[in-house]
Write a structure and sequence with these properties.
single chain, 196 residues, alpha+beta, MYOD Basic-Helix-Loop-Helix Domain, subunit B, Alpha-Beta Plaits, 4-stranded antiparallel beta sheet, two-stranded antiparallel ribbon
Length: 196
């Protein structure tokens, strides 16, 4: 047995060794307290502190944090960024629609301006002709400038006056609207008789 124990003693390296053996520790720097001092230890601490500070800043920016660990903070931030990207896409689509509708409005206004010029160019004047057909029935021919909503206002006003349109024909050409219609005017004629 002595033979085995003496062989084991030869393999053991004492603690006070130079550190150049196979099992020895590499030489390093030791601080005043005798603890091993790594040259990258402070850099690693700074890196971790910087990462921790950035995670705290990210947590402060993201409105919904489900858990306080690092992985959840990053997942919540990714979800929040995706929501923001969806909002940006939705709002940019709305802006494009608004731009398209404003271009249509500008085009419609230009058409209205052009319609007035066309009427003057072709010598078309606004006019109203009324012919009595039979008792309460009238035939009306109206020429007016082509503008948005003008025909609707004309119909509303005629209905307000008590005129009932039976056969109506609407034609637009050269910047003008031609409305010809057969009208029953029961209440309107009574209204006119009261005025006279």
């Amino acid at each position: 047995m002595e033979f085995v124990s003496s062989a084991m003693k030869e393999l053991c390296i004492p603690r006070e060794s130079s550190g150049r053996g196979r099992l020895g520790r590499r030489r390093g720097d030791y601080d005043d307290t005798g603890e091993f001092k790594s040259k990258n230890l402070h850099a690693e601490r700074r890196r971790r502190q910087k990462l921790s500070d950035r995670l705290l800043a990210l947590r402060a920016i993201v409105p919904i944090i489900t858990n306080m660990n690092k992985a959840t903070i990053i997942e919540d931030a990714i979800t929040y960024i995706q929501e923001l990207q969806n909002n940006v896409e939705f709002l940019s689509d709305q802006l494009l629609e608004m731009d398209a509708s404003s271009e249509e409005e500008i085009k419609a206004k230009i058409d209205e301006i052009d319609s007035a010029g066309e009427m003057k160019q072709y010598g078309i004047m606004e006019e109203v002709q009324v012919t009595n057909i039979d008792g309460n029935k009238l035939w009306i021919k109206i020429i007016l400038e082509k503008k948005r909503g003008r025909f609707c206002r004309l119909l509303e006003n005629m209905t307000y006056l008590g005129l009932e349109l039976t056969d109506t024909n609407v034609t637009t050409t050269k910047g003008a609207i031609l409305v010809s219609s057969c009208v029953e005017a029961r209440h309107f004629l009574q209204f006119l008789y009261q005025l006279l």
